[in-house]
Amino acid sequence: MFDIKWIRNNAEAFDGAMSRRKGEFARSVDLLNIDDRRRDIITRLNDAQEKRNALSKQIGQAKAQKDEAKAAALMAEVAQLKEIIPAAEAEERLVEEELHAALAVLPNLVFDDVPQGTDESDNVEYFGRNGTAETVASDRARKPEFSFAPREHFDVGVAKRGMDFEEAAKISGSRFVVLKGEVARLERALGQFMLDIHTLEHGYTEVQPPLLVRDEALFGTNQLPKFEEDLFFAGHGEGRLALIPTAEVPLTNLVRDAILTEGELPLRFAALTPCFRSEAGSAGRDTRGMLRQHQFNKVEMVSITTPDGSLDEHERMLGCAEAVLKKLGLHYRVMDLCTGDIGFGAKRTYDLEVWLPGQDTYREISSVSICGDFQARRMNAQYRPSGAEKVKGGLPFVHTLNGSGTAVGRCLIAVLENYQQEDGSVAIPAALQPYMGGLTSIGGDH
RNA sequence: GGAGAGGUGGCAGAGUGGCCGAAUGCACCGCACUCGAAAUGCGGCAUGGGGGUGACUCCAUCGGGGGUUCGAAUCCCUCCCUCUCCGCCA
Q: Which residues hold ATP (predicted)?
């Protein structure tokens, strides 16, 4: 959400940066035109209100002096304002709404050095601030080698028994899955494993948030008003609640309408939750297997920082997500999303793409985004600088970041495909074995 | 689900139609006192918006929205939220 004043003062920069985004968006002249009308009506309204307030005060004084004749005369004078003011107020409300609606559908401006592009094929591999392809290669697991043709996750022996799409369809339709037995346990183990890493090693506070959220929360994290069709809603009397598409929504909105102190920043929250997405618009894509489901588990990280701290926090958060894949020995790459692929609220996004040997390709398993003050403005989340000197122009907004650490369902896929054996069993990565009751392999006894 | 109470500035807490954008206390900031600190004294201290080069000035905001009134923190309606008791329930 943009500050119209900022657009007024930075019209060229705004238009230039916005034009890098995929899609058509309002130009600064159009927005400033609305704002001009808004300010004009405000000026007129203020004048009328000032007059009314002054006259009302005089009426009070006249009545106190028992001068009823004077009071009556003043009341007659103020009577005409009774028509002007409500009309002006209605007009102001309309133009405020118009401006708000126009601003609410504008995506965030990306950083200057975000790669230009039209779709995911223009994303650029990222090797870290000081990294290279070589430093990164030595730091990560390599692609596994197979003496047989690796299968896709749903064809791996153990998954054929523990992953049932037809049963799920009977109950809930397409894009759902029933996990059973060792596969279900593996899913659970992965979630616990990831959450423990972030809370015990990375300083995130574990949170169990509501999974049903209000429209205001969705507005704060940009799902509304533009992406309503991606959501599931639960009816509740007159109102409605949305099933969270990601824990980013409740975790980030923890600081909605809050005034934090600089000393308590950064705040770091992590949660393991189911996520619900309608996947409208992706009909026919990834229909086999559990890559793209209406419901999936995900560990989400959210950081709330000062403006000065957000860039470093972004790199740090990326490292937190990478740590999961490193510990699991999964091969992956990091992509710096181009302007055509980056999400609505982000100034920069790193995607972690894990190697899936069964598909012979990389697939997104985590997305780590820095949003600047974009969401903070929508949520009205500010902080009080510790300098304590009076801040000109109001309190500053916090910066928000979010990242998956990681998608549990997709990580399950990655483990199944990368650790599959020729006999259909799946080896359990060492780091995960404590979470599997010490098992070193599943599906081996069939 | 039934009955009741309540939402006021960073916090606590007064305020039932004009003298209230709001007492008082705490916290915070500045100054004085002090070698320094504490204590004490004095002063400052909500947010958003409009106009003005500026000193400044005006408007709005007492949970959100609407209404009554010349005038609303205060009266009415409605929504949201919190708390207490009863009922039901995991």
A: 277-279, 364-367
The answer for residues whose C-beta is within 8 angstroms of residue A164's C-beta and 6 or more apart is A177, A178, A179, A180
Between CA A413 and C1' B54 the distance (Å) reads 66
Q: How many angstroms separate the CA atoms of A412 and A429, rounded?
A: 12
Bridge partners of A382, per DSSP, are A259, A397
Asked if A292 contacts A379 with a C-beta cutoff of 8 angstroms, the reply is no
> For A380 and B47, how far is CA from C1' in angstroms?
12
Look up the ipTM and state it: 0.82
Instruction: Say which of A367, A377, A417, A425 is annotated catalytic.
Output: A367
C-alpha closest to that of A406 among A445, A357, A353, A361: A353
Short-list A433, A417, A438, CA closest to A193: A433
Residue A237 confidence (pLDDT): 56
Note if A277 is an active site residue: yes
d(CA A325, CA A421): 20
**A140 counts as catalytic:** no
Give mean pLDDT, residues A120-147.
Answer: 96
Q: Is the CB of A63 under 7 A from strand B?
A: yes
Where is average pLDDT lowest: A248-257, A294-303, A382-391?
Answer: A382-391
The reply to whether A45 has its C-beta less than 7 Å from any atom of strand B is yes
Which nucleotides of chain B have an atom under 7 angstroms from any protein CB?
10, 18, 28-29, 47-51, 58-60, 66-67, 70-71, 79-80
Q: Which residues of A79-100 are buried (b: 16+ CB within 10 A; e: fewer)?
A: eebeebbeebeebbeebeeebe
Question: In chain A, what are the domains?
Answer: 4-104 (1.10.287.40), 120-442 (3.30.930.10)
- Smallest Cα–Cα separation from A407: which of A367, A347, A380, A446? A367
Q: Is the CB of A257 under 7 A from strand B?
A: no
Q: How far is the CA of A216 from the C1' of B32 (A)?
A: 50
